[in-house]
Design brief:
By secondary structure, the protein is an alpha/beta fold. The protein has a single domain, classed as Undecaprenyl pyrophosphate synthetase, CATH 3.40.1180.10. The protein is about 40% helix and about 15% strand. It has a 6-stranded parallel β-sheet, sandwiched between helices. Helix 1 packs across helix 2, helix 2 runs parallel beside helix 4 and helix 4 packs parallel to helix 5. The longest helix is centred in the N-terminal third of the chain and has 24 residues. It is globular. It starts with 6 loop residues before the first strand and ends in a 12-residue tail after the last helix.
Length: about 240
């Protein structure tokens, strides 16, 4: 059996459908889903995982009904405040990836404060993808790289390693494992560059019901896979 994955990326899917199945508004599912992040992070660290990246709000999610988006913004802003205590209690560094300029000034301020507050913690590294879309990330990276080339701050001889440093995840290793909850089997514009050689694990369990047991099952499935990175396994 192999080692635990160093970095696990998760698409938190099924919050709204989970709530509707219980006769509750979709926003109730998002509230419960937000509360599920801390216990999963704690369980992940105990399993030897060093990085967890959660897809919490995509660039496409703005097209949802106005009342749902408004509630999501309230949940996320409240979470940024509460996450200070969570990061301190769990020795957890928290970073946000995505285009945060799309959020309110108060939200951006809370993100900056959380990242600064937790930057020296040495336990789990938690990344939260907010207003994130992988195509948008790549376009933003190209723009930054082009500006640096034009100002002679970067070489025009671009390599994959150089380009990776312009991505939101520049100081974070690529995910070893992607988990998507609630049965859907697609990437939904998530970490397209970074997931090039990741293992995928899809589960029917919706995110609010995805607990330590389900995480262990996903890790076990990963440990039993043969990762060859395009190479042929020698006899």
């Amino acid at each position: 059996m192999g080692d635990a994955p160093r970095h696990v990326a998760v698409i938190l899917d099924g919050n709204g459908r989970w709530a509707k199945a219980k006769g509750m508004p979709r926003t109730y599912g998002h509230t419960v889903g937000a509360k599920n992040v801390e216990p999963i992070c704690r369980a992940a660290y105990e399993l030897g995982i060093k990085y967890m990246t959660f897809y919490a709000f995509s660039t496409e999610n703005w097209s949802r009904p106005d009342d749902e988006v408004k509630k999501l913004m309230e949940i996320l802003e409240d979470y940024m405040t509460k996450c200070k205590k969570l990061s301190r209690d769990n020795n957890m560094r928290v970073r946000v990836i995505g285009d945060v300029t799309g959020f309110s000034e108060s939200m951006q301020k809370k993100i900056r404060e959380l990242e600064e507050f937790s930057k020296d913690f040495t336990g789990l590294n938690l990344q939260i993808a907010l207003n994130y879309g992988s195509r948008d990330e790549i376009v933003r990276a190209v723009r930054k790289y082009t500006a640096d080339v034009l100002s002679h701050a970067a070489s025009p001889d671009l390599t994959e390693e150089m380009f990776s440093r312009y991505l939101d995840t520049k100081d974070i290793p690529d995910p070893d494992l992607l988990i998507r909850t609630s049965g859907e089997q697609r990437l939904s514009n998530y970490l397209l560059w970074q997931l090039a050689y990741s293992e995928f694990y899809f589960t029917e369990v919706p995110w609010p019901d995805f607990h330590e047991k389900e995480l262990k099952e996903a890790v076990l499935a990963y440990q039993n896979r043969d990762r060859r990175y395009g190479k042929v396994k020698e006899a």
